[in-house]
Design brief:
Elements: H1 2-18, E1 25-30, E2 47-52, E3 55-56, E4 59-66, E5 73-80, E6 83-91, E7 98-104, E8 106-107, E9 121-122, E10 125-135, E11 169-173, E12 177-181
Parallel strand pairs: 3-12
Antiparallel strand pairs: 1-2, 1-11, 2-4, 4-7, 5-6, 5-10, 8-9, 10-11, 10-12
């Protein structure tokens, strides 16, 4: 009987966590160790949430992260159907928070990625999306040279990083967002 009660409480908590009023979905972000175990905020782990619309003409979302290093730049990556797009670079404010409100009509690279450039994907259709944040180890300015031709766009995107080559992940999603682009 105790095992059934535990499972019931766990499923109730998961369901409550995933749905918010207004038709939006919520996904939690957590800092994880090398074994992908969550590092709780009480032990110094960063945390965050993403609220997103599960369908529409564009993917609209609000990401809020805390427990980051103040003044440090972080990259937001979206893994869309297995293709990773580095969409933005943001600096954590004085309290270690980053807030991003965005609407994406086309999944595409948004900052320098060098040879990691992937061709854009329209938001239309069914997609599985993951939200990740990592340190922005890119150069502080300029562009990142890549072997790809300029016509592919890989080296034409601007860099705004920390300039230290540190690309360690700090936040990983605790699930996958299903999005249907209309």
């Amino acid at each position: 009987m105790a095992a059934i009660l535990i499972v019931f409480l766990y499923l109730g908590g998961t369901e409550e966590r995933a749905t918010v009023p207004g038709g939006l979905q919520r996904m939690m972000l957590s800092q994880k160790d090398r074994d992908f175990a969550i590092i709780p905020p009480a032990l110094g782990g960063a945390t965050g949430s993403v609220w997103y619309s599960p369908r529409g003409t564009a993917l609209s979302f609000r990401l809020q992260a805390s427990g980051l290093h103040a003044g440090r730049r972080y990259l937001l990556e979206l893994s869309v159907d297995g293709t990773v797009y580095t969409v933005a670079s943001h600096v954590a404010d004085a309290s270690g928070e980053v807030v991003i409100d965005s609407t994406i009509t086309t999944f595409a690279e948004g900052v320098c990625v060098g040879d990691n450039f992937d061709r854009p994907t329209p938001a239309s259709g069914a997609h599985e999306v993951e939200f990740w944040m990592k340190n922005d180890g890119n150069p502080a300015s300029g562009t990142m040279p890549g072997r790809k031709r300029a016509s592919e766009g890989g080296s034409a995107l601007p860099c705004h990083g920390n300039g230290d080559g540190n690309y360690d992940y700090v936040l990983l999603n605790d699930g996958t967002a299903s999005f249907i682009g209309e």
